[in-house]
Design brief:
Elements: E1 10-14, E2 17-22, H1 30-37, E3 39-43, E4 46-50, H2 76-89, H3 119-126, E5 145-147, E6 156-157, E7 170-171, H4 177-184, E8 193-194, E9 204-205, H5 226-235, E10 243-244, H6 246-253, H7 258-263, H8 269-276, E11 284-285, H9 286-302, H10 326-346, H11 359-369, H12 379-388, E12 395-396, H13 398-403, H14 417-420, H15 423-426, E13 434-435, H16 436-444, H17 454-459, H18 481-501, E14 516-520, E15 528-529, E16 544-545, H19 547-559, E17 564-567, H20 577-581, E18 593-597, H21 633-641, H22 644-672
Helix pairs in contact: 2-5, 9-10
Length: 673
Amino acid sequence: RIKKKAARPVSFWSEARVCSVTFGATGSPPWKRAQQEGGRRLCGGHWVGVKMADRRPHDEGCAGVRRGGKGRGTSGLGWAAAAFLTLSLLAGAQAQGQCCTGTACNTPTTWDAMLSCPSSHWSTHMSQFPQQWYLINNPGATVTKQCISGPSKFKTCSSDADCGGTANTCKMPAMSASDYIKTYMSCCKHCVWSMKFPVGAPIQVTAGPVGNDANELTGISNLDCNTFAADFVALDTEAADGFLTRTEFNNFLNKVPFKQMVATKMLDSDSVFWIADLNKDKFVSAHEYLILRHFWTPTLISNAAPTQTTGTPLAEGPLGGMFFDNSTVSVWVTTANNMMVRLYIVNSWDSAGTREPRYTEEKEHKRLRDLDGSTRISMDEHYFGEFADIDGDGFLSRAEFDLSLYNPATATGNPARATKSSFEYMDLDGDGKISFIERKRIVADRNENGDIDAVEWAWADFPIEYGPFKGHVYVDGTLKPEQYRYYMAYHGCTIRGSIAYSRPLSEFPWDQGCPININVRPSVPFVSPQSTTRRDGHGIDDQHGGFALRVLGNITERLLWKPTIKYVSADADKTSLETEFGLGPPNVDTGTFELALLTEYQETPADWTCSKSLFPEDGFVLVTRSQDVEIVMYLIAGKLTGSPHFINFFCTLFFFTLVVGHIIWFVEKKRVQ
């Protein structure tokens, strides 16, 4: 049985009973109420005290609940049945067609309510045209209605009487499928896949009745989220406790197509388990499994894998091959549209409700999902953007974090993760919100020592061309939180520039709110004085000129940068990088970057490290030479004469002359005769 209280319990299931942690007041999130009022655990109708630091679903204090071991009194069949009910009956007390009651449907009060979509509820929606989901208005459901006519038109109403008494005048206003899901069925987000276009009303991909076209729509079964819970129960075989161990998870990877992908080194099994375990407690919970299935469903339908761009197998590259790239996204949007067209025709729905994206729409689809701009879309990006970031502002507030599967309150089996998964630990810059780049640090730290080494940096899909490992690593060669903040500052400036200019990070956009100061040594002939002041609109505007500044101006113009040029004093101390040019780590508070234009390579201090470019293909090139080479004409002539090209040329000329000579001889002979 499921305990129904005004304060919704954080529920976990064992045997045929419910074990839950319930907190009193409803005005604050459960973790806050726990700290304020203390928590008690209900097991089989008996209250048992529980320490807040030990508030985990499977622990002492509840007989027969602890995972593993002897004497737990667990009935595998009973537990499996209860676990299945977790995802299908948790919202059973609510009106059909709605995930919750009241006005806060898109912001539930507990993390376990976020994915509690009952199968009976969603089955109702699968049988309806997505653009008409808003018409599903069952008795008892709390929805926002408006008068569609009469003296109270556009005003909220609860019955036709509020609109003047005319029948069918108090209705739910029309809304897109995406808005309906967000407002009234947020707990069923894992049952739909947004195409991200058109902007006003994005197309939603979902399962539906196949009618007589079962053979043509066999793949659509992968979209049926009602099967996810049963699949999880079938995998949870060791203790049937609602969590998959590494061994149990292997049963998932032994299925098609994952088995073949692992065998051919397209997928690394260890990486998949690490990524799927969102709260890093060494287990994959039922909710984490739903997110995994939602992420991988496009792969199952499209039968497409990422493109291998190097000689290294995907399994040995970034994210162990567990990502979407541009090619897989393109295949997915095309396949999904074809499937939806077929589904709409079978059910006599308006097939104009779906279409393929325009080029710009597909490009925007990829940008919206690629939160870090790496051109690869990871499962963490997918969960962060599609589920955790409820208001879509690109950050997790404290409330959103508490409702997410990142919350350490969702963890079991690894209490040490409570600190490193806390909001305070992830919020590296202390601004009260978590960006995806801050979250990405947790994913990259696979050995969980708090630092990121070069191997972890590459695995986590950070850019190899630019990063702290080219200048700002700690003395032990790792990236500690302080150094990671340097990269956060750089990434924040580039990602905001990417949005502002609609340019990918590969084109090096830059947010104009992030100052770039380029320090230049005014040395002739590279930088020379000019008689008049000029301005080119890219920060090169004073009495100096010269080839180096012209090149710099062309580069910054192409990159849409507007740097400030600063000339260092001739009397500046040239003994160190900091004293002469004022260079140092980025200012993480203001986002200010100090660069230097070096033109006299012979004066470069021995302890400086000069890169060939600031960013790949940015136009900055470092040309060096070790010594002058004396040019000997005799040596050049000898090498030219013995070169294959010269020999080929000579032979060709010889035979050409021979042929032409015989032709002339033959013509002259005929003329004489």
